[in-house]
Each structure stands twice: as structure tokens, then as C-alpha cells.
Amino acid sequence: MLSVAGLTRRFGEQLALEDVTFDVVPGRMTGFVGANGAGKTTAMRIILGVLAASAGEVRWNGGPLTQTTRRDFGYMPEERGLYPKMKIRDQLVFFGRLHGLDPDRAAERTDKLLERLGLAERATDVLETLSLGNQQRVQIAAALVHKPIALVLDEPFSGLDPLAVDAMVDLLREEVTPEVPVLFSSHQLDLVERLCDDLIVLARGKVVAAGPVAELAAGPSLTYKLVVDGDAGWLRDVRGIRVRDVAGATALFDVEHDGVAQQVLQQAVTRGPVLEFGPERVALSDVFREATR
Amino acid sequence: MNDRALDRPWMLIAEREIVTKLRDKTFIGSTLVMLVIVMAAVIVPALLAGSGGPDRIAVVDDAGVKVVQQASAIEGGDGYEVTRAADRPAAEQLVTDGDVEGALLPGTDGYVVLGKDRVSSGLESRLREAVVNVGMERNAGAAGLTPTELRAGTKVELELLKPAPLPDVVATFVNIGLALVFYMTALGFGMMIAQSVVQEKESRVVEILAAAVPIRALLWGKVLGNTALALSQIVVIAGASVVGLVATDQLDILKVVAPVAGWFVVFFVLGFVALAGLWAVAGSLATRQEDLGSTTLPGQMILMIPFFFSVFAGSSAKTIASFVPIASSMAMPGRMLTERVPVWQPLVAIVLLLIATVLIVRLGARLYERTLLQTGRRLGYREALAIKPS
Questions:
Q1: Which residues form the signal peptide (chain A) (predicted)?
Q2: Which of A129, B98, B272, B359 is deepest in the core (most CB within 10 A)?
């Protein structure tokens, strides 16, 4: 497991991270969200050792993260970068070896990834002659080539069209084995909601919400939606529930537990036809807005 | 999963540096151009001085043969070769066709030296001396004297108080040549190091590199890879000039230069490594290629000033320069060629250079570590020194 504990980073007077603590659990995708300047990139760079922390530490399976372990990590920085004038195959083999693969294994992994990404025919092309989308593919291949033991991806999907995102996600699912913790930052919340198991919300350098996406989205109480044929205003008089909103035939209300909801449903059926009834998920963007307010 | 590259990541960086350069057409091109220039510098003067073999002199009688043999003896060996011509017109023909350097014909009171458009002063004076010798020997017999008696008291001997290993002109030439080789290589490779560092910053690949290996390993890989390349380039060029010297029969120069070659390599490697550290810093201070003009200026000065000093300064200034680190890389090998230098002097210079190299590289590594990941804007050296480690 990858964890950060009490991470703090100052840039001069400015406090970029303040006592940030969270875990990235293996086998689960952890989304890292927050407004621009919230400190996501700073935290990721500290995890990769590119930047030093003013206080706190990065831990790996309970112990301090060493340079040797970190070398087996995969990293896709926010500002993309590979050698523009190097052939993509040579480039990926180089990065594989840089992360400790022997030359044969690096070549084998490179060929497999290029094949998988549909770039096998362009293996001897120089990077800068590729389209931006393809360059992005090579970039993710560079993070995956050495079969990383942990993945840190800073905005991996920015600038990709929906099809390319799907292809990338498929690749990640295929390449990332269950023992690998994955942390990726994004501001595309719909994407995060679709892909992530866990979520860490950062605001002004602090963790403001963290946990499984399902729990965060459900909130502290359960919200139900009821649509009847007629007026739903009578709900306001029902005890044991908190009505969020009633608009004609449609109502949103919170209950303490599921049993109460069933009682409400029974009551509604006796009053007339029920067109729609069920728990209502709160959009992640609402959670995000709520948490970062 | 592990292999030895894990323990020595700098080797991988050095390897990439070397492979990239060897595939770079500009690098290969400039090496070839340098090769051609050096070969030309070695071969052309020899060709101008006359083709390898002895000069041929046309003669028409046995007396002429004797004179030419005498001239060869004065020259010290087989300087001239006799070509027999039937008569004067035949000899003239040989001269105009360029088959012979000149012709020696009997004249009204002695001999006539026949040339096409000119007769080299060396040839003229040798023939003149030979004619006088042969003539005087004959006249001496007539006057009842032996040739030895005739020559008594006319011998002139040359004695040098401070003999130099090489003739003056050649020494100056070789001296400038050695300093120039260091200057050009250090400057050329220096700029390449700075460029390759700033390219990594510009393309942001440095972020991935720094995440995978220690920044010091990046620096060492770059410095050592380029040092190996520079040294091989010099070995190739040196090899070519040796071939050139052998081909043009200038082994005497080789005999003098060879013992200094080992010293030159030591001075070269140490000086180069020290500078390479600085050049890498010049690259890491910049954020774009355009910044290199200003960040590499100190490096250029550190090279240029000692270069002109070691080439053009007077001898006592040169002696001082030959002890000053970096300048010594250019001045000391040159001094060892042109004068007799006691062996302790290069040794002391090497120790000083070694200390300087260690200090410069340590300082360079510190600056490099602090500035490599600063991609915001170009930094100055002063500013970089003030940055606290991040």
C-alpha cells in the first residue's frame, strides 16, 4: 500500500500542502480531485521524489519509501515529456531499462505495448512525427513498460477524445494487476466517478474528503426520489423523513434507514399510482462542490 | 527484474548519450570535417615541401654525376638522384616537362643550374656547395695541396645552449594544434552537453528521469558519456594524423610528440570532466535553447582566455598558465613539446588540476541538483547558489 502521512510543503511563504494524509489501496483506482492549484501535482511530485516535502513522509507497505522501491513506480507527469527526436521503440526500451529491466525484457515489453497500442508499425519513427494522441499513448506506455509496482498518473486523460480515453482505460485495466495501487488526478469528474473506486478530494492543500466513491456519493443519509400521479405535497406531513424538495408530482427526501422509505412507498400506493420510486445518487460534482466550498 | 543497470544507472544515461550522438548526422559530419582538416594539416605541408622521394637532377656528363653525388652527401644521404640526359636540349626538355627538379650543365666557367620557373634555394645552395667542393678538390691537387689541407680552419659547428625537442616552426605549430584540439573539443562537446540538458528540460522528460534515477546519476552519465566520446574522437583524429605522418615520412615529429601524448590524455580528461560539469550546469540553468547564449558565457570565457594565453603569451606567462587548472590542459602539453620541462612540473600541474576538478564537479553537481527541475525561467549562477536544496 502506498500512503502519505502528514505531508506538508511550503514554497516560500505559501503553503502548498498542509498535513496531507491518505492511503492508495492496491487493486483499487484512487481518484485525486481538486480545483486548480489545490496541490495535487505537488503531492504527486513528492511521492515520486522529484520534489522534497517540508514535513511528513511517503510510505510503502508501512515503511519509508526508498529510492530503489520508487524506481519500480510508474509515473506520468502533468507536463508530458519524452525525447522528441528519439525513435519510440528505442525510447521505451530506454525507459524500461532506466526502471531496472534488462535489455531483452525491456525490448519484449516495448514490443508488446506498441502492438497493444497499435503503434507497432511506427516503432522506428521519431516521437515528434507522431500525432498528439499517439504521443500520449507512447507516454502512458513509458509509465507502464517496466510493469510498475505502483502507478501515479497526473491528469492522464487530459486532451484525449472519449474513444482514446476508453482505449487508455482498457489498457490500464489490462496492465494493472490487483496488487498495484493506482493514484490518478483528474478534473473530469464524470470520468473519475466512472473509473475510480476511491476518491481523495483536495482543497487549498488539505484533504477535505476521502473514501470509497460509493460512500462519498451516498452521503451521510439516504436520499430517495418519488414520482406520483398527482401532487406529492402530502409528503411534507410524513414523520421520520426530511423532504429536500417537492415540485408537483416529484419529491426528493432523506430517510434515516431503508425501512422508513418502504413505509413511505406503502403510504403513496394507497393514495394513488406511483410512477417512480428509488434511491437517488448524488452526483460527484455535488460532493466535490460541497467538499471544496 | 533487476540487472546491473539498477546499481549503475549512470551507465545507461551515458550509453544513451553516446548512441544518440553516434546517430546524429551533425556530430558525425563535424567529426569528419575535423578529420579532413587535421589530415590536411599533416599531409599538405609535407607535399608542398616536396614529394617523398629524392629530387631528380638531370646531368649530361660524368663530372655532373659527381657533383650531384657530392650534393647528396652534403644533404646527408640520398637527397638527389641523377638522371642522365644526352645533351642540353634533352635536359631542357626534362626540366620543362617537370620530370626533373633541375639540370646541371657545364658552363663557361663552372656550371649552369637550369630550372623551369624557379630553383628552390635549398637545391641551389647544395649544388653551389657541391660544385665548389668538387672544383676546389681538383684545384687543390693542381696547387699541390690535399683537400684536407685546403679546408683546414674553415669548419663551422653549430652549438645550441637550450636545445628544443622540435624545430621552432614545427614546435609552435604542434603547440597551437594541441591547445586548439582541447579548446575545440571542450567547447564543441560542452555546448552539446548544455544543449542535451536543456533539451531534457524543454521536453519535460527530465521529470520522468528524475523520478527514476538520482539526479547525480543523470549528471555523471552525461559527463562520462561525453568524455568517452570526446576522447574517442581525439583518438580517431590522432590515429589519422599518425597515419598521415607515417605516410609522408615525418616520423621525427612523431618521435617527439609520442611521449607527450600520454600526458596530454591525462590533462585532457581531467580538464574536460571539470568543464563538462560546468556545461551541464549551464544547461540546467536555462529553460530554453535561447537561454544557452547567456548561461554558457562563463564556460566559454573559462576556455577562451586560457587558450589565447597558452598560445600567444610570452614564455614566463606560459609557465604560470601551465600550472593553473584548465589553462594547464592547454599550456602544459605544449610546453613539454617546445622546451625541456622537468617531470615534477606536469605532476604538480596534474595534482592541482585534479583538486580543481573535484571541487568544480562537486559544486557543479550541487547546482545541477538544485536547478534541473526549475523549469519556470532562466536562472543566474548567483541565484542558483542561493537556492536551498528542495
A1: none
A2: B272
Give the distance from residue B194's alpha carbon to the nearest chain A alpha carbon, in angstroms. 15
CATH of the domain at B76: 3.40.190.10
Distance between CA atoms of residues A144 and A138, nearest Å: 10
CA B376 vs CA A19, A114, B202: distances in Å: 26, 33, 11
Give residue-wise pLDDT tens across range A163-205. 888 888 888 888 888 889 999 998 888 788 888 889 898 888 8
Q: Which residue of B has its CA nearest to A44?
A: B211
Is B138 inside a domain boundary? Answer: yes
Q: What is the pLDDT of residues A115-170, one digit of tens each?
A: 988 899 999 999 999 988 888 889 999 999 999 999 999 988 887 888 888 888 88
A50 contacts in chain B (CB < 8 Å): 207, 210-211, 373
B128-156 burial string, b = 16+ CB within 10 Å, else e? eebbebbeebeebeeeeeeeeeeeeeeee
The β-bridge relationship of strands B55-59 and B102-107 is: parallel
State residue A152's pLDDT score: 93
- Name which of A75, A102, A105 is nearest B208 (Cβ-Cβ): A75
- Say if B160 falls within a structural domain: no
Does pLDDT of B348 surpass 90?
yes
Same domain, B267 and B123: no
Grid coordinates given for A78: 502533468
C-alpha to C-alpha distances, B349 to B39, B263, B295, nearest whole angstrom: 31, 11, 28
Instruction: ipTM value, please give it.
Output: 0.78
For residue A51, list chain B residues with Cβ-Cβ distance below 8 A. 373, 390
Confidence label for A293 from pLDDT (cuts 50, 70 and 90): low
pLDDT category at B3 given cuts 50, 70, 90 is very low
Q: How far is B6 from chain A (nearest CA, A)?
A: 5
Average pLDDT over residues B302-312: 84
Query: What rounded mean pLDDT belongs to chain A?
Result: 87
| Domain-located, residue B332 | yes
Sheet holding A222-228, edge to edge: A241-247, A250-255, A222-228, A274-279
Residues of B with CB under 8 A from a CB of A: 1-3, 5-6, 9, 12, 16, 20, 199-200, 203-214, 373, 375, 389-390
This prediction has a pTM of 0.74
* Closest residue, chain A, to B375 (C-alpha): A79
Q: Which domain holds residue B232?
A: 9-46+166-386
Candidate from A138-147, B201-210, B254-263 with smallest mean pLDDT? B254-263
A184: three-class secondary structure by DSSP = strand
